[in-house]
Design goal:
With 164 residues, this protein is an alpha+beta fold. It has a single domain (10-149), classed as Histidine kinase-like ATPase, C-terminal domain (Heat Shock Protein 90, 2-Layer Sandwich). The protein has three helices and five strands; from the N terminus they run βααββαββ. It has a five-stranded mixed sheet with strand order 1-2-3-5-4, with helices on one face. Strand 2 and strand 3 form a beta hairpin. It is globular. The two termini are 23 Å apart.
């Protein structure tokens, strides 16, 4: 999988939305990744004349925060980031510099026993996202990708072919 450029650069836009071009930005922290992702999502939905549910955006931003923080804290640093809208939601991919696949990535989503101050990230990701994949990158490191489902806000026109 190679959805991102190295060095923390970002690729958005997508093959699922004809006529859209890839936008680039630099993501160096969870905060900049959240801001970028929200701009991509709201921009795509607005351009299609739709409104996304705020609670889905909140879930998406929690997942983005956890994935980027994991790359920075446990993956040797953030090597790339991608946010792309699809018909089902938003595909997020985070590249880091570590070849180690986190054991919790394919766990049950159970919360840790007792409060230890950490260990909540992967259970949160597992509960809010689907299609979780961890792929090694040819030059070293890995890409963690997930799909976070998104729904139209109540009263918004339904999504149809060609509209997200």
């Amino acid at each position: 999988m190679g959805p991102t450029d190295g060095g923390g650069s970002v690729r958005s836009g997508d093959g699922d939305m004809p006529g859209r071009t890839a936008a680039r930005a630099v993501v160096s922290s969870a905060a900049t990744a959240r801001a970028y992702t929200e701009a991509v999502v709201r921009g795509e939905w607005d351009a299609a004349g739709l409104k996304v549910r705020d609670e889905d955006v909140i879930d998406l931003l929690l997942v983005v925060s956890e994935l980027v923080t994991n790359a920075i804290r446990h993956g040797g640093g953030l090597a790339g980031f991608m946010a792309r809208t699809t018909a089902e939601g938003v595909r997020i991919a985070v590249d880091d510099h570590s070849d180690i696949v986190p054991e919790a990535a394919f766990g049950s989503g159970a919360l840790p026993l007792g409060h230890h101050g950490n260990g909540y990230g992967w259970p949160l990701i597992i509960r809010l996202a689907r299609d979780i994949a961890v792929d090694r990158r040819p030059g070293g490191g890995k890409t963690v990708s997930v799909l976070v489902p998104m729904r139209n806000a109540p009263g918004s026109a339904p999504r149809t072919a060609g509209r997200l």
